[in-house]
Recover the amino acids of this structure.
């Protein structure tokens, strides 16, 4: 699955298919790190649809009681596959749930990169100083269908999608940086060249990679295999 990668060196834990299971995982990782004297901040995010699962409550509640260093984020992109936000939750805003855990909750414009950065900085500083977790809701929009199997024309209009695309956070930020003179057309072109080279090389590498041996499906499932390879 596309978003199920992990990366040990970058400390990204492999994600699993059942949504929001990462919320209790983050609390557990933060607790384990504290016990080991490792001064980390754990980060876990979920969609607004997935935030209605029990794991959401269990994870945040545990982290709040024990003042664990976790930043919890809800990416509110207004849809859970075909289900629009108003059919997912009755709350006015999801960040208000923080009150029930005794932690700060903030709703930010997810299309404004500086606003998002500021909220994350507050949450990370709070976690590092031992005050516990925070909940941030970033509000944005899902530009594409949920997956290649999903035809979004069945549940939302083209106009709605086009309107949202006019607020593409990457383009807005790019333009701001160009206007400020921090980014120039030359830097931009070089960046685009560099990035597409990296993406093309990675694609080629993946396409040429051999299929895994069928037996490898049994690796890392039970403890006796954990040390192999
Ligand atoms: C426990 C569980 N139930 C259902 C699914 C199927 N499923 C995968 S993604 C998804 C919708 C998620 O919507 P949202 O949380 O808003 O995240 P988004 O895709 O919009 O980022 C569902 C129902 C799943 N993976 N896990
Ligand atoms: Mg969503």
């Amino acid at each position: 699955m596309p978003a199920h990668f992990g990366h040990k060196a970058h400390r990204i834990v492999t994600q699993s298919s059942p949504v929001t299971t990462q919320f209790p995982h983050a609390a557990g990782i933060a607790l384990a790190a504290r016990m080991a004297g490792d001064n980390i901040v754990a980060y876990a995010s979920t969609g607004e649809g997935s935030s209605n699962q029990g794991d959401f409550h269990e994870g945040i509640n545990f982290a709040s009681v024990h003042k664990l260093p976790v930043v919890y984020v809800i990416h509110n992109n207004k849809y859970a596959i075909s289900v629009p936000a108003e059919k997912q939750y009755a709350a006015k805003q999801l960040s208000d749930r923080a009150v029930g855990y005794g932690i700060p909750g903030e709703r930010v414009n997810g299309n404004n990169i500086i606003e998002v950065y500021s909220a994350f900085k507050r949450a990370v500083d709070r976690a590092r100083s031992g005050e516990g977790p925070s909940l941030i809701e970033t509000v944005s929009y899902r530009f594409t269908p949920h997956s290649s199997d999903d035809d979004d024309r069945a549940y939302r209009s083209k106009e709605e999608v086009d309107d949202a695309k006019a607020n593409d956070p990457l383009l807005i930020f790019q333009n701001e940086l160009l206007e400020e003179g921090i980014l120039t057309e030359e830097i931009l072109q070089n960046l685009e060249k560099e990035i597409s080279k990296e993406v093309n090389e990675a694609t080629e590498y993946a396409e040429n990679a051999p299929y895994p041996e069928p037996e490898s499906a049994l690796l890392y499932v039970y403890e006796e295999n954990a040390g192999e390879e």
